[in-house]
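Revision sheet: structure tokens.
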Amino acid sequence: MIKKYSTFLIAVVAFCNVSQAQQSDSTKKVDLFADLDNESKAVAANTTDYASATFKSTRVVNGHSIETIGKNNLDFRIAHRFGTLNSGSYNLFGLDNATMRIGLDYGVTNRLMIGIGRSTVDKEIDGFVKYKILRQSSGKNNMPITLTYLGSAMHYTLKGSEDISFSNRMSYAHQLLIARKFNDAISFQLSPTLVHINMVEWKKEKNNLLSLGIGGRVKISKRVAITGDYFYQFDKLTDRQNSLSFGVDIETGGHVFQ
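Predicted:
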């Protein structure tokens, strides 16, 4: 009988020791997970996460986006603009009235971009510089927006303007491009714009013209997005209208077709 009780007591003690060991191991596991979680939070707090691909191209539709091309990348662009659909079949619904700009954009750094181009409208030659001042980020450095500056100069060479001085055939534009990527699908941009024309056609026209651009991008699938931009002119030349544009971005194999 005593032998049975002794065996029972030994079994109880052994069970208690095993239970304590399991509890100790379980506590260690909980502590380990907590330590890893705290470590991850500490790393995240000391890391800056920058927003990328707010827009997939350096243009929204007609207007520039906040994006710049990568360092040492060269972008060759051909842009067409056609006439109005209501011009009828005689003008092939606007296709006969095509104008074109051909240009080269180059990434000096990942934040600085320059470009040159030539347009059929007024035989105009243009150049621009674009610099990303602020980048939207979270984590250690929190910045709610991306801010990019764009400055450009235009010179028209249309025949019949030879008697006009070189400086009077110049015009300039300055833009602050302010954008935020709200999530993977939605991006929004504001574009306050100042255009300065050295010589206007009529004395009643202003040399400095202010406008505000509004642009956006909405992804409708993994590789397709709808884009749009609108420019409201506070100071408008007599023969100009506000610009409203819609577009489709299609991503294929590292390229974006607009």
